From TrEMBL:
Highest taxon in the source lineage: Eukaryota
Lineage of producing organism: Eukaryota, Viridiplantae, Streptophyta, Embryophyta, Tracheophyta
UniProt protein name: protein-serine/threonine phosphatase
Stretch list, region Disordered: 1-22
Broadest EC class assigned to this enzyme: hydrolase
Organism: Rhizophora mucronata (Asiatic mangrove)
Amino acid sequence: MCVQDAEQGSHEMESLDGSSNKKQNWPLHCEILHTQMENLDKEPSLINSSDGLVVGNSFPLESICEDRAVTERKTNLSNNFVPALRSGEWSDIGGRSHMEDTHICISNLPEKFGRRLLSDEAISFYGVFDGHGGKSAAHFVRDHLPRVIVEDADFPLELERVVMRSFVETDAALAKSCTLESALSSGTTALTAMIFGRSLLVANAGDCRAVLSRRGTAIEMSKDHRPGCTKERIRIESLGGYVDDGYLNGQLGVTRALGDWHLEGMKGGTGGPLSAEPELELITLNQEDEFLVIGSDGLWDVFSSQNAVDFSRRRLQEHNDVKLCCKQMVEQAIKRGATDNLTVVMVSFHLEPPPQVAAQRARGRRSISAGGLQNLQCMLQGSC
């Protein structure tokens, strides 16, 4: 979604209609939307079929045009895709004595907080928050982060920058609250997913995980921020931290989290090895994208990413109930011996269940064994 105040929108439309070809410095999701708008009035078969091509003798023009036509047809199928969102969630205390996970599902984020936008298109917001050292930080972030995002002056035009900034601002607000009420002192990982139009933006700080099913293939939309990750370890050491026996500064099993201001050496006014900055992943959804699974780390202790996709597809093909699928996944995790709190949020992009995908079997010749060949020869000769 690329929207802003009416006055700004009018100004940008004037610049689009002008003769200048100067490239606009827009975020990725705005460039995607602008490209789609430009292509609306064009016939798919007429879009740049051969304009401006420089073709050598060894590359027949007909072949290039055929390839481009196929590519354009695929692109148009993708551009015409409109996600039909359905969501569900389920949580369980698992093998713990206290529940420190929490989650949130908001179908229309601006509407939830009374923010009127130029476009009527909804921005959906989903999040899983896995607390440690208590549930206070997880609940604080769940309750404050969505509002901080919506109330940012650049929302929703520069959404990536807004989300990055909002994680850090929410972390600072939590620190201030902890000084007023020490009982709030705790920490939480956070993973959020926002869907606007055909765009999916995932932001992650910690070891919750988001996995996309694309025609049955698992695509990880986030990376686990743990001390064993080489990239994270380099970042930690550059900021004066260290990894001891798989723990950040010998204390935490994650390298990014909100809160934990009470832990010495983790955070400070000038920064520290424990970061609240999320890593972002932005993609454009297409027809083959089926659903997104977001889970706390308790789920991923007993499910691989591909296993979670396979399990979810089978259940959705059976009953096509997203919430029931989440419940069954949590129950299966408990059967597999999960010892942590468990939270699953699922967002489906279709009203129909996932289609059956034919298994690709390896093609190869099967030769008869030497013993089998000898027996066959014996039978043919009648000597057996």
